[in-house]
Amino acid sequence: MSDLPHCPKCQSTYTYEDRNLFVCPECGHEWSAQQGASDADDGLVIKDANGNLLADGDTVTVIKDLKVKGSSLVVKVGTKVKNIRLVEGDHDIDCKVDGIGPMKLKSEFVKKA
């Protein structure tokens, strides 16, 4: 049986070692051998266009007109989005835009309000 630690993010048992890092093939999480499970579970580090750290529940402002894919709608510059939720992935902000509905945004197109 393997003596490698379980993934601190998804608890997968299929972790492997790559140089000085442990890697989870299921969720893609990487952590160092010196780092404890509590250190790896600090959460996402997502910054806005100005480099400010974002957190769940923050209010952000859109800094560029964003076309909504599959629709003729546009999220205009200056639109405030309240109560954001941070998620992993390319579009790392999950939110609800007034007048449009639920959508995902990239953090590079918003600034903290």
UniProtKB/TrEMBL annotation:
Pfam families, alphabetized: YjdM, Zn_Ribbon_YjdM
Protein name as it appears in the record: Zinc ribbon domain-containing protein YjdM
NCBIfam families cross-referenced by the UniProt entry: phnA
Residues in coiled coil: none
Database matches in InterPro entries: YjdM (IPR004624), YjdM_C (IPR013988), YjdM_N (IPR013987)
Family indicated by similarity: Belongs to the YjdM family.
Domain Protein YjdM N-terminal: 4-32
Residue stretches making up the Protein YjdM C-terminal domain: 46-113
Superkingdom to which the source organism belongs: Bacteria
